[in-house]
Specification:
YigZ family protein; Ribosomal_Su5_D2-typ_SF; 4-stranded antiparallel sheet; 5 helices; alpha+beta; Impact_N; 32% helix; Impact_N_sf; 2 domains; Alpha-Beta Plaits
């Protein structure tokens, strides 16, 4: 079971690829929604208001992926898909890559465009710090104060991550568990008398 994914933590440095006087500026941004992608695109359109094309691709989701690729006026599949190909090649998600083109007066042809957009996207990814993260499931554990010791012992033994705790007369602890261990941990808490556990959907 695949329970990890790769992402970037912060925007890349601006990179530049040149071909026959055309300039291709590449950028990578971490995103978690299409709205964030639109905001970054707006900013780049303002920054590069004299450019000719703002081509991009994004992918979001840890397990189920959503993606979009846009040629922004370039010949069909000559920009957006080559950019998206690099996202797949580097196996990253929750990412937007934009390549801004300033036309240099010489046509590059479809092959030249594919190479330029692919290269600028690759450079933006190479300029980014890519990290691997685990896919986690979240649980709510409910119990009374006398069960506190046994619950905390399991959390310690398995080095579980506590997201939040409400410790009053009736206690609730929220934990995140790596996906491949989630079922075993769920069963462990479920088997304890007077302890309830339920999965929290994001």
């Amino acid at each position: 079971m695949k329970d990890t994914y790769k992402r970037i933590l912060k925007p890349s440095e601006e990179v530049l690829f040149k071909d026959k006087n055309s300039k291709f500026f590449g950028y990578a941004f971490p995103i978690t929604s299409e709205e964030e992608a639109k905001e970054h695109l707006e900013e780049l359109r303002k920054k590069h208001h004299q450019a000719r094309h703002w081509c991009y691709a994004w992918q979001i989701g840890k397990e189920e992926h959503q993606f979009r690729a846009n040629d922004d006026g370039e010949p069909s599949n000559s920009a957006g898909m080559p950019i998206y190909g690099q996202i797949q090649s580097f196996d990253v998600t929750n990412i937007l890559i934009v390549v801004v083109r300033y036309f240099g007066g010489v046509k590059l042809g479809v092959g030249g465009l594919i190479n330029a957009y692919k290269t600028a996207a690759q450079m933006a990814l190479e300029a980014s710090k890519i990290v691997t993260r685990t896919i986690d499931e979240k649980f709510e554990i409910s119990f009374n104060y006398p069960e506190m010791n046994i619950v905390m012992r399991i959390i310690k033994e398995h080095n579980l991550n506590i997201i939040e705790q409400k410790l009053e007369l009736d206690c609730k602890i929220y934990i995140s568990v790596r996906k491949k261990d989630a079922e075993a941990i769920f069963e462990k808490f479920k088997s304890i008398y007077k302890v309830e556990i339920k999965k929290i959907e994001d």
